[in-house]
Specification:
The structure holds two protein chains of two kinds.
Chain A: H1 5-13, H2 20-31, E1 35-39, H3 46-56, E2 61-65, H4 72-76, E3 77-82, E4 87-92, E5 99-103, H5 110-122, E6 124-127, E7 130-133, E8 139-144, H6 157-160, E9 163-167, H7 174-181, H8 184-189, H9 198-209, H10 215-230, H11 240-256, H12 264-275, H13 283-296
Parallel strand pairs in A: 1-8, 1-9, 2-5, 5-8
Antiparallel strand pairs in A: 3-4, 6-7
Helix pairs in contact in A: 1-2, 2-11, 9-11, 10-11, 11-12, 12-13
Chain B: H1 5-18, H2 20-23, H3 25-45, H4 51-69, H5 74-92, H6 96-109, H7 120-141, H8 146-170, E1 193-194, E2 208-214, E3 225-234, E4 239-241, E5 260-264, E6 274-275, E7 278-279, E8 285-287, E9 293-295, E10 303-309, H9 320-326, H10 335-347, H11 351-364, E11 368-369, H12 381-389, E12 391-392, H13 394-407, E13 412-419, E14 422-424, E15 429-433, E16 437-445, E17 449-453, H14 456-459, H15 475-482, H16 495-514, H17 518-529, H18 533-557, H19 566-577, H20 587-597, H21 602-617, H22 626-644
Parallel strand pairs in B: 11-12
Antiparallel strand pairs in B: 1-4, 2-5, 2-15, 3-4, 3-6, 3-13, 5-10, 7-10, 8-9, 13-16, 14-15, 16-17
Helix pairs in contact in B: 1-3, 1-5, 1-7, 3-4, 3-5, 4-5, 5-6, 6-7, 7-8, 8-18, 10-11, 10-13, 17-18, 19-22, 20-21, 21-22
Classes of the chains: A alpha/beta, B alpha+beta.
Pfam families (chain B): TgpA_N, Transglut_core
Protein name (chain B): Transglutaminase family protein
InterPro entries (chain B): Bact_TGase-like, Papain-like_cys_pep_sf, TgpA_N, Transglutaminase-like
Amino acid sequence: MNQFVSPVLDALSNIIFGKEQQIKLAVCSLLCKGHLLIEDLPGMGKTTLSHGLADSLGLSYQRVQFTSDLLPADITGSAIFNSTEHNFTFHPGPIFSQVLLADEINRASPKTQSALLEAMEERQVTIDGTSHMLPNPFFVIATQNPLHQSGTHPLPESQLDRFFMRISIGYPDEAAERKLIMGFSSQQSEDVKSTLTDEELLELQHAVTHVKLPPPVIDYIISLVQFTRNSGLFHDPLSPRASIALGSATKAWALMSGRNYATPEDVQAIFPSVAGHRLNLSVKEQDKVISDILDQVLVPV
Amino acid sequence: MNTKLLLITFIYLIMTMMLFTELGTPFAILLCVLNIWHVAQWKYIRFPPSNLILNIVAVIGMTVCGLSIGFSNSVSLFVSLMVLACQLKVIQAKSDKQNKQIMVLNFFTIPCLFLFSQNLFTTLVVVTALIINLGVLAAISHKQLLLPATKTAVKNIFFIIPVSMLLVVFLPKIPSFWQLPGAQVAKTGLSENVDPFNISELSQSDDLAFRAIIEEPTSYSPPFYWRALIHDKFDGTSWHMAREQNIPVHVANRDISSVYKVIAEPSNLPWLFSLGNAFSDSDEVSTNQFGTLFSSKIRSRNFEYNAHTATAPTKEFLTRWEYQRYTQLPKKLNPKSAELARQWDNDAGSTDDFIVLMRAYFIAQNFEYTLTPEVIESTNSIDEFMFEKKSGFCGHYASSVAMMMRSVGIPSRLVSGYLGGEYNEANNYFSIYQYDAHAWVEFFIPNAGWQRLDPTAWISPERLIGSLSQHTTLAEQFKSNIGISLVALSGVPGMEWLRLTLEEYDYKWTRWVLNFDKNKQQSFLQDLLGNNAQVLSGVIMVLTLVVVFLVVFLFMQRQVYIKRPLSVELYEKLKSVSPYKNNNLTPLQFISKVKEQFPEHTHELDEFYSHFSAARYQGKTFANRQRKSTMKLIKSIKIKTKRKL
């Protein structure tokens, strides 16, 4: 386990019990400078996890609760007339922070969603012809409810693709639930201390790019991607952007496991989270379909 | 600009060196300059010159080529134009496609060396050059490094050797439909006109003239005078060839008991070599009235023939016309020599006495044998030689003696050919080189016929034994004449051995490969297959072809075999013997499953995985010593798996 990463994971597992895998995936996404989508039913700890992530990485964050009447300017900020100076002054919105927590992103109208997603891709906001750079690092951690819930606007596929990973937390096991009821979580959620400085985070992100991706692992990624394209089972096969994401997530996973080289196990670990939403699978069907793919695609030696 | 192409330039350089005498100095120098140009271009400029410059160079090259070689020698001209074109193309080539065209063309250009010589050395050079060419071609077309590409090429060549050998042995030898005019090869040591007085230095070459195999040495004893040409007309300075030399005559009295074989090197003259009066039962070889042999066509390849001694009926007398012919002399030339001969004739009672007196004179006057005589320009050249210079080589002596005999009415003629030869004991053959060329006299005695007289032997009796290269007193002169060659280095220890060994291999090459002609093939098949040789060889041919095509077909059908790394091979092996051979598992998952199944092997499995992951995922090499322990592990897991099932 990487010496910088393990404190972060430890801190997070103190607020989300029994979900080490999901926590690791979330951190992995951030190490790859990728935006994270957390999808689950209400009350499963999505918001807790996203706050914890921002806290533990020591990043400044702002939270926006997406509602159906939220406007793009509510996120990006707008120019307001200054009556003393007789000019328009730009007032940055909540997006100008290192982490933007977009709660229930699929409750907002497509117009607002797309304003956010543009900022995610470009890492800058253009208002009245002026471009404003977003801070670095910049992450969006969005949560959304499953699509069958009322009052949701599904994210278009093109915009889903911009999320590096989609994770879902799932129900806790008995022991974890017992702990929750006993009230451990509420006390400790305020205690999450930043365990990583900005520089350390940047260094980790940099270290990810230096992890070795050996030929068998590349072959594996390619066979997986090709399978989604050639098998005819998928309406929306994986894009080259997905292949790149699989590669860097694999590297980050290897780094988090304390190695400077990737193995096929790393690919298997990150594959569901990176590929699931891109294949347009719902959280429910994702597990089965992905494990089918992993069963059918031979692991290159 | 491709570095590999320098090798091709190097091949052209070697070709230029080997064809130096054919190409003429100016053109050879031009080719060398082009070689240097290519190297310089590769080193400093790194892009090809403009087409205009190249075209100008091409025109200059063609002009030099035409001037240097001349248009009469069409084969040399074609070959040199070919080499020029290839060299220019190499300089010009920009793309891999053009380079490949050159390589393919080289498969034609390089074997052109065979037009000029087919001995073992040339063969080795050609084969080496072709291998290099093939390697470069493979390297360029497969984008490989030169060495592995060449290795593959050599492997493939070895693969086809047995096939081509079978084809050589069994494929019927069909006469060619069309032939190049023979290249002007092997400057012979003989010439049709013998003019010794005009030569300051006997041009000597260590090229082979012919080889002879005398199977019954008892029938023939040294010195071996190999007769080739008869000269019957003397014009005061040179002796001209008899014109009837290429008119075949019937030889009645044949003695076929003692055959000897001669393997003649390619030559631009039809005259062949034989001992004494000879006839031959080989195809296209005839005997003329002088008892020498000639071929009905000029040979551009080695040529083997059988010869027998024919005991010609003793001629009792010469016809009047013949007598005139053999005593013909230009009038009023060489009066002093003629006077001297007349004195001896007066003192002597017979021709034999005359010869004795003549011999005594040569010995008393301290005549010398030399390979570097002074040029005699006066019209009375024999007088000057007999009374002033008193040193010369075989031509001088033979010419003078024949002239003096004619002046007193003894019919005589000059014979040129070769004397001696180098004997190879292990294989029982003689090698006769161009420097063994010799001239002597034949004179006629009524009722006894033509007799041989070698005046050179009076001066230098040593010359009669073996080859000129074995002549001790002349060693210095000989070596300086011959220039840089193995013969000249024979004083250096080991060199003589090296030369003789090479010579022996070349002999075998000539005898068994080059001269494997239609007749030899037939007799070989007869020996091998008995009476049904024709049928059986046909069957073998068909079978061979079927096998060859099958092999080629299977070869093309086969899947491209990529050698897997050792680590992968061992992993696959381990997996195939384990209970999980059909599971789609990552290596780590697989190893941990096997560990669960066979906890006693945990340590070995962990060790294997760490090596495996180092090799597959970390770019390190798989330690070869790991192989043994892994094989042991595989074995034990195999046994245990079987037991469990």
